[in-house]
Write a structure and sequence with these properties.
homotrimer, two-stranded antiparallel sheet, 13 helices, eight-stranded parallel beta barrel, TIM Barrel, alpha/beta, globular, hydrolase (chains A, B, C), EC 3.1.2.30 (chains A, B, C), about 15% strand, 2 domains, transferase (chains A, B, C)
Chain lengths: ~325, ~325, ~325
């Protein structure tokens, strides 16, 4: 797009965002893992412009470094979330609830001076695990505080129970102190669990990959796509980003700083998505002025999740044009 | 096939159809939408030889034309279903039960002098919606009258609840005044809901598209494939018809008169399907004569739905040869 | 791999197998069907080195030969399972529980002097069928005897009920005299049931094929892939074996002796799988020596099914190197 159109787009979005005045969603295009026991890498991660930074206690940290990771993460949280040029999500990935580490992980970050925005919980396989997490969370933070919850789906059993996991999470979040925001497709553990060998087009995981995004959307959650392991192959990364985005994924896991900008760019909305979102927001604005009843847009009844989706797209569009 | 074989095939089917004497299924290869507020297009639709004509109150009609569509459809129904050279399905697509329009839509067509064959209900997401529809239907027509019901599945939530929707529909139909006959894959709304961008091979919707046809068949329903939007590209349409038919779809939605004949041709049964159906019907005939017990064909126990499927194939084969 | 590495690998596995001392899984790469009424073919099957031989009462036997098949199978069982150069699985495929034949089939093989290892039950569609089978089994064999159960999934309805079937089977097996070991994708009946026409890449059955392997793994079962019908095309067979193995399948149905060796070779584990399994078993050995608590390997908590999987891979690796 040329700069005049981009400017006009930008102005439209700014004014519309003011009118609707809501801010439910934040984009999570690149979900970047940083080893929790490496202060240097953590510091660097704040310079990379990733939508979501996950300080890792899990796979990225050796067993004999778990305690070290907790202390390092806690000391970062004590200093407060660094202010960057734009908002981002700062999370902590704890160890799986099947391990003996997760409670200490949770304690370390929930008793820091400042809370992280988000807790990322790997290897959730049943709704019972969500209950366990919810109970533990309640020990540390009050009901006036709300943490985001990012759920990892990475085994056959988890896929069998996926709808139940989401239902229970949604239900518990109504009275609890967390809010589910994402499902993550933990493809490496998933492939190991099933015995899958992936090829470049990842056709072997198509069933699971598309089921995850469908269930995520049914529960108004973002869907984060699998890791692209060959971190030096940025062209391959871009292709897989686009493939995932076409399926409805809203972001992708990132294991190397060099992958961040490719992912952030690839998950910007397309021109047709931007047009749809702006049209919807504008139509809503006019509708509000006229005090009409049911709100429809292009023949569809518009509900709150759809409004949120439009606003999210509009926000991303602003990133594209700024 | 040459004309002698075609003639023999035709004679076989005619005689077999007489013997079995059942007529549960009618083919629904092309499901053609006609805007309910356009008398000219409605009149034209009866000349197009589509298996199923849907007079549309929903997406094809602007909001300020809804009342007009109801009146137009009603006046057509009052005149009685036009007699064409062969049988076809005449239906009305009402607005979604989430809108404020559907009850008026239903009233308009159910209080006409002659009922339509079929009601098409878009955007069904839960079995609760089916109950609501069933209750409303009961207000207008008696239990001695049976309308066909065509169900649209077009959101993530609908796919989550798909088996429940079909179970409830099957259960309600036993005492109610409707009979479920089809599931329709409402791909455009589905893609918008999930955030999917389709490519030409539609690999992005493969999970949903194949789940729908599997569930449809588990409940002995026909499965109607997605719309092919590029209505001028008849070669592309044909390819997508064949792709859907290979997956088990029995028909396809049609948004333009020019698409009808391609779709009707593409969904004719293949020679091997015809051979299977004729063999089964013939075997059944012999079996009946001999008064034997359990009926098997090529090693499979044959139940009523399979008989129906064979008869449907035989009917379509007759179209192919006539 | 060169012979020195192969020798070292072999020694490692032998010593590790001694330490862990468990033997839950046996490989089932080629599942070979032999018509139960053909003594010559049965005798030949024992020379073919297939992991699993299924003496067939079902599709491979004409209706007027069912009684003959039962007698032939019984007389083979009376002589005792032939000892071959390595262990294998000897099973009997009975007729579907929807037919009037299955009880006689079961009686014939369960009252023989020696039991088969495994009963293969086709066309299971609901968990009720598993109960029926379990009850019938209980009439013939005591609770101190355990037969393997191989379950065929081959219709839309079966896929709808797949998780329920597996849950009930798992539950019944805890007190019953059978142990579920495999799910088989009965693709030919499945395609006929849905109305699917398969192409060479089998993309039309992708949803079902990947759902089956996922559910199998969630219940710690092996997954046996579809039949490759063109039995003279060994290159095509090999391609489809590799495709299935990449998806997580552990074996394949074989309808012709000429297919056995291709399938047995194709389903050997890959070098990376062997490396993973050996590493895990070795790590477990060291862990046991040191008397540590929770056992993790490469960041994952290792549970019993994963140990079994590693041992199975190690066994197959031994076949590869011997």
């Amino acid at each position: 797009m040329n700069s005049i159109i981009r400017q006009r787009l930008f102005q439209q979005i700014v004014s519309l965002a003011k009118i609707s005045g809501r801010n439910y969603y934040i984009p999570r295009r690149a979900l970047l893992y940083v080893p929790g026991d490496d202060p240097k890498k953590i510091s660097k991660s704040f310079t990379l412009d990733a939508d979501c930074i996950a300080l890792d206690c899990e796979d990225g940290v050796a067993i004999n470094r778990k305690e070290n990771a907790r202390e390092t993460i806690r000391s970062f949280l004590d200093k407060g979330k660094p202010t960057l040029s734009r908002d981002y999500d700062l999370g902590v990935r704890i160890n799986s609830l099947e391990t003996p580490y997760w409670q200490e992980d949770l304690k370390a970050c929930l008793t820091a001076k400042f809370l992280p925005d988000t807790i990322l919980v790997p290897k959730i396989e049943t709704d019972e695990t969500v209950r366990l997490f919810s109970d533990e969370l309640g020990k540390y933070i009050g009901t006036n505080q709300i943490l985001n919850l990012i759920i990892y789906i990475e085994s056959a059993k988890a896929f069998i129970n996926l709808v139940d996991i989401c239902k229970t999470t949604e239900s518990l979040s109504k009275t609890g102190n967390f809010r589910p925001v994402c499902l993550v497709f933990g493809s490496d553990d998933f492939c190991a669990n099933i015995g899958i060998t992936r090829t470049e087009d990842a056709n072997e995981v198509l069933y699971a990959r598309q089921k995850l995004v469908l269930v995520a959307k049914a529960f108004h959650l973002q869907a984060i796509d699998m890791v692209y392991i060959k971190y030096k192959d940025l062209e391959g990364l871009k292709m897989q980003c686009q493939q995932g985005m076409r399926m409805g994924y809203t972001g992708k896991q990132v294991i190397h700083p060099g992958q961040v900008s490719v992912v952030q760019d690839a998950f910007l909305p397309s021109p047709s998505q931007i047009e749809w979102a702006l049209g919807l927001l504008k139509s809503f604005e006019e509708h509000q002025k006229q005090g009409k009843g049911a709100f429809t847009y292009k023949g569809n009844m518009i509900d709150m999740p759809t409004m949120k989706q439009a606003e999210n797209t509009a926000k991303l569009a602003r990133l594209k044009t700024s």
